[in-house]
Amino acid sequence: MNNFALSLYDSRRRRLVPFKPLDSLHVRLYFCGPTVYDLLHIGNLRAMLTADILVRVLRLLYPKVTYVRNITDVDDKINIRAAENKESIHSLTERTTREFHKDMRALYICPPDVEPKATDHIQDIQTMVRQLIQNGNAYEADGHVLFSVASYSDYGSLSGRNPEELLAGARVEVASYKKDPGDFVLWKPSSDNEPGWDSPWGRGRPGWHIECSAMSHRYLGESFDIHGGGHDLLFPHHENECAQSLCCFPGSQFAKIWVHNAMLLVDGEKMSKSLGNFFTIREVLENHNPEVIRFSLLQAHYRSVSNFSSKGLQESKQIMDRFYRALQPYNLTEFSINNQYFPSDFMEAMGEDLNTPKAIMIMHQYADKALKGDRLAALKLKQSGSILGLFNQTSNEWFQSLADKKEIVAMIQERNHAKQEKNFIKADQIRNKLKEQGIVLEDSSEGTTWRQE
User: Fold this and answer.
1) Whole-angstrom distance, CA of residue 305 vs CA of residue 89
2) How far apart are CA 134 and CA 246, in angstroms?
3) I need a surface site. Which of 182, 296, 301, 416 has the fewest CB within 10 A?
């Protein structure tokens, strides 16, 4: 572990950089969480999983890690959906947040250390807006407070875009009250039927970008180690976050490294309801084991565009079956990932910007040896998988969870009864029927167990 080195691709510098925390005793990172107006789709999962893997690795390396992931619970999308559902905004956001947590638990996504809600930090947001006005980086106009892009000379440096690209990419509203078309909202007025809070600029609500800046500052300070999210957030969301935070706290660094995961295709195309390839996490969980879903996403590097498909899930299941079969002969219910058998070659791959495809290749090597009777290799396989959030069950639980347990148990009992009556033809017929379904029976002095091929 002492020789382990972690490098990450920094979107701002657009290159791989060694990770050196601001404080070697306390690593701090912030990832953008969901806007809670609906169930998350499978594309959202990739960002959550990237953060999860990164945090798991950091926790092995450093004595303290503070991971913040926010909840956006004030947004125009929320207002629209609540009206469509004819329910209160509070009811919608509370229910959707619970469902989000349920999906994350099902997929073994570790919870953040802090999960702030935007509506709980209105005072922090207003304080930051006032400071930006005082610093000359924001102005009030027609009940709005806007960030002045022209006041920040480095605007665009994070995403690497020029002013023309920035304006086109932002799809900004060209409003009469803006000094510049690219200026973005920090605070906007609310009507009587919209969420609103009293402020020096009238009753209103925050813009989206200022929420994350205020919450990251509240829990991580003016400068912290890592900020992350999907590549689709790089501009305008993260660009705007960066600009307003650096202007609010001159001399700060804000985020030292920016980590962005690439998009997820489904069946080779961008997700779209019109194409019929739009799936919520919940829908995928109904038909596939959560570890299979995790593993399927991890087979591609987080910065490469990945394709999510039924074929890919099927192949991932077969690999996971093989891994669990490699672990099955060994009693590894209690182990420590910090013991002398720590899988250094696996961690070396993970240190290369979380290179999960390379790490999985090494896991295959461990499985090859474990299947030949190498207990140390089995232990390394177990440890490596645990770092990826896998192997949350015993091998028997894994195989039994992949089929209709009640039906199989009933057929095994029927076969045992046939054997007791010396009706071996019927017993063999039951065994063969189960084998056709991919279920293998194993008889021993302690009884009959089963597993899926």
Assistant:
1) 35
2) 14
3) 416
CB neighbourhood size of 344 (10 A): 13
> Where along the chain do its domains lie?
28-264, 288-398, 403-452
Q: Is 141 helix (H, G, I), strand (E, B) or coil?
A: strand
Q: Looking at residue 437, what is its pLDDT?
A: 65
Q: C-alpha angle 234/239/242, rounded to 5°?
A: 125
φ/ψ of residue 126, rounded to 5: -65, -40
**What is the Cα Rg of the chain in Å?**
26
Percentage of the chain lying above the pLDDT 90 cut: 76
Quote the CA–CA distance of 302 and 438 in Å, as a whole number: 33
Name every residue whose Cβ is closer than 8 Å to that of residue 26 and which is 6 or more positions away in sequence.
Answer: 62, 63, 64, 65, 66
CA angle, residues 192, 145, 220, in degrees to nearest 5: 100
Token pair 């009238």: residue: 202
Q: How far is CA 223 from CA 22, 84, 246, 255, 305, in A?
A: 8, 40, 9, 6, 30
Distance CA 408, CA 318 (A): 20
- Which run of H or of E encompasses 308? strand 306-308
Tell me whether domains 28-264 and 288-398 share a fold.
no
CATH topology of domain 288-398: Four Helix Bundle (Hemerythrin (Met), subunit A) (1.20.120)
**What is the DSSP code string of 219-277?**
HH-SEEEEEEEEGGGIIIIIHHHHHHHHHHSTT--EEEEEEEEPPEEETTEE--GGGT-
Q: How confident is the model at residue 435 (pLDDT cuts 50, 70, 90)?
A: confident
Minimum mean pLDDT range among 154-158, 364-368, 398-402: 398-402
Distance CA 318, CA 453 (A): 9
**CATH of segment(s) 28-264:** 3.40.50.620
The neighbouring-strand residues paired with 117 are 71
Q: How far apart are CA 138 and CA 140, in angstroms?
A: 7
114, two tokens? 């802090």
pLDDT digits (tens, 9 = 90+) for 136-174: 999 999 999 999 999 999 999 999 987 666 565 555 556
Q: Is 110 exposed, middle or buried (0-12, 13-18, 19+ CB in 10 A)?
A: middle
Joined together, the tokens standing for residue 18 give 């060694």
Measured between alpha carbons, how far is 289 from 360 in angstroms, rounded to an integer? Answer: 18
What is the rounded distance in angstroms from the CA atom of residue 177 to the CA atom of residue 99?
A: 39
61 close to 99: Cβ distance less than 8 angstroms: no
Total length of the chain: 453
